Amino acid sequence: MTISQHAQKRCQQRGISPDLVVLLNALGMETQQKGNTYLLELDKHTQKTLTKKLKQLLMQIQRNVFVVISDDDTVITTAHKH
C-alpha cells in the first residue's frame, strides 16, 4: 500500500497514525464509493473485539516475552526473560 502525500498530511493534521491506516487496510470492512474508490472502516463488533485483544497483547508485551525461530521461519518456542 502506498500512502499519498495528501493522506500523510491529513493523518498528521488529524492525529491518525500511519499504523492505524495499515490496520484498517488489513482488517477494515470495504464500502464501495463512486470513482473506483472504497472506504475502509471497522464495524462496532470488530472495534470491540480488537480493543479487547490489543489490551491482552499489551499485558503480554510488558512481561518481556521472546520467541525462538528457525531458519525456515518455524516458531520453535516462546518464553519470558527473567
Describe the 3D structure.
The mean pLDDT is 93. Helix content is 46%, strand content 26%. The N and C termini lie far apart (39 Å). The longest helix is centred in the middle third of the chain and has 18 residues, at 44-61. It contains three helices and four strands. The protein has a two-stranded antiparallel sheet. Strands 3-4 form a two-stranded antiparallel ribbon. A hairpin with a 5-residue loop joins strand 3 and strand 4 (75-80). It is α+β, with helices and mostly antiparallel strands and 82 residues long. It has two domains: 1-42, no CATH class; 43-82, no CATH class. It has helices at 5-14, 18-27, 44-61, and strands at residues 29-33, 37-41, 65-69, 75-80.
Features:
two-stranded antiparallel ribbon, alpha+beta, elongated, 82 residues, 4 strands, two-stranded antiparallel sheet
Morphology call: elongated
Structural class: alpha+beta
The count of DSSP E runs of length 2 or more, i.e. the number of strands, is 4
- What is the H/E string? HHEEHEE
- For the report, how would you describe the main beta sheet? 2 strands, antiparallel
Continuous helix count: 3
Helicity, in percent? Answer: 40-55%
Assess the beta-strand content as a share of residues.
Answer: 25-35%
How is the largest sheet built, in terms of strand order? 1-2
Low confidence ranges? none
First-last Cα distance: 39 Å
